[in-house]
Amino acid sequence: MPRLKVLFVASECVPFAKTGGLADVVGALPRALADHGHDVRVVLPRYRAARRHPADKLDAMVGVPLGGGTAWSAVWTAHMGTSSARAYLLEHDRLFDRDGIYDDAHGEFGDNLSRFTFLSRGAIELCRMLDFRPDVIHVHDWQASLVPLYLDTIEAGSPIADAATVLTLHNMGYQGGFDPAGLSQTGLGWDDYARDLERGGRINLLRAGIRRSTVVSTVSPRYASEIQTPEGGEGLDAEVRARGGDVIGILNGIDDAAWDPETDRHLPAHFSANDPSRKEECKAALQRELGLPERPRVPLLGVVSRFAHQKGIDIIAGTLERLLVRDVQLVVLGAGESWAEEVFRRLSRTSDCVRAHIGMNEPLAHRIEAGSDLFLMPSRYEPCGLNQLYSQRYGTLPIVRAVGGLDDTVENGATGFKFTELSSDGLLAAIDWALGTYRNAPAQFRAMQIRAMRKPMGWGHASRQYEALYRLAMGKRRAQRRR
Ligand code: ADP
Ligand code: GLC
What we know:
The chain has 483 residues and is an alpha/beta fold. The chain has helices at 21-35, 93-96, 112-130, 146-152, 190-197, 205-212, 221-226, 237-242, 279-290, 313-323, 338-350, 362-371, 387-393, 404-409, 424-440, 442-454, 460-482; strands spanning 5-9, 39-45, 56-57, 62-66, 69-79, 86-91, 103-104, 107-108, 136-140, 164-169, 177-178, 198-199, 202-204, 215-218, 247-249, 300-307, 329-336, 354-358, 374-377, 397-401, 417-419. The protein folds into 2 domains: 5-253 and 460-482, Rossmann fold, CATH 3.40.50; 279-453, Glycogen Phosphorylase B (Rossmann fold), CATH 3.40.50.2000.
C-alpha cells in the first residue's frame, strides 16, 4: 500500500509540551505510524517550555493570517525519537513565550482564541511553505478544531482542501468556548459562526470540528457511545449523534519504550512479568524517597492525576478518614484545584502514612507507578485514561470506576478492580476488596499483577486502526470533493 502523508495538529506533544495524556498520544502515535513507513509530521506551538528541547530553525518564516493582520512565525523542527516522524514548532513570542500552556497562576489566558486560531491556520500555512500535501490532517481536541472548517471555507479552492480530516476527541469536557466578539480573530464570517461555531451564544470550536471533520474518533469504544448521550456529550451529544457511523472509538496505546519497568531510566530497580521480584525494591525506594516508614507488607496506594472534577479527587478525599485507619500508605502526585492541593499538602504534613507532591514531576510519576501496589482512578468520566495502563504495565493493580476507557481496559478481578457507584462509599468498597485480596489471597494478587503486566498495550494495534480510519476518511473526502 502506498505510504500516507499525515499531518498532526495538536496543542501538546511529548517531550515538548504536556499537561496530560493528549501529549503522550501525540508524542507516540506519529512515531508508530512513521515506523509503518508513513510520512508523518506534527505541528504545535513553540511554548516557552518547549525551548529547552533541541531543534533546528528553518530559514523561511510562515505568515499566519490572524485578526486581519499577519502573524509571522519562525519554524523549528525536531526529530521525534528515533523515528522518521518530525515535529514542527511554530514560534510566536507574543502568543507563546510565557509560562503555562493554557493558563498560569492568574487563570486561563484571555487570548486563547487567538493562540489556537494561530495554531490551526499556522498548520495550513506551514503545509504551503513546505509544499507538503497531506492525505490526512489529524486534528486533536478544540485547539485544532478550526482546521476542518477552514478547509471547507477559506481554503475550499486550494489543493490542501483535498486532505481528509480526522478529529480525535480526547475530552468533551473542554470545548474551546469564547465570546463571539473574538470572531474577527479567526477570519471566519457570521454565517460560519451561525452554522458551525455557535453554541449557547458563544463560539464553540469543538462543535466546528465535530461538524466539519471527515470522520470523528475518540479514544475508547465505550466513550464513543457515552458522548452520544446527554450525560456524556457535555451539550454536544446531538452533534456527535448526527455524525452517526462516522464516529469510532480507538483505544489509546502506551509508549512502551518510555513505560517499560524493565528499562525505565527513572526507576531504582528493574522488573518484568517474567521476573517481578525487584518491584519490592521500587516500593522500598519510593517509601524512602518520600519519607514514609519503610514497610514492605503495608499496601501502598498511588495516585497520579490532574486535580480536576473529572478525576474524582473529591471522591478520594471523601474516603481519607476511613481509608487511613486501614493501615495503608497513600502517595499522591498531582496539581490543579487548589482545595485538593491544600487537602493533600496538609495530610502530607500531619499523617505518617500519606505523602503528596504537588506539581508536575515526570520521573516521580514513573516511580509511583512502579513502587505502588494499587492505583486509584475514581473518575467521573474518562475518555481513555493512560495511568491505569501504565499501572498495569508496572504490576500495580488499578482500582477504577467503570466508565469510558477505564471500563474498556480493566478486566474486573483479573487486571484490576472496578466499581460503578460515583461515591466515596463505592470507591472504598472496591479498595476493601483489593486490600482483602492483597492481604488474604497473595497468590491471587500476584497472578493478577502478572496478567496485567502481560497485557499487550503498545501502539501497534491502535496505529493499524488509525491507518484504516485514515483510508476510510480519504475515500469519504474524495467523494465530498467530487460533489
Ligand atoms: P488526562 O489526560 O485526562 O490527564 P491520562 O490518564 O490520559 O489523563 O494522562 C495523564 C498523563 O499525565 C499521564 O502520562 C500521567 O502520568 C501524567 N500526569 C498527570 N499528572 C501528573 C503530574 N502531576 N506529574 C507528572 N505526570 C503527570
Ligand atoms: C484526555 C482524557 C484521557 C485520555 C487522554 C489521551 O486528556 O482525559 O482520558 O487518556 O486525553 O487520549
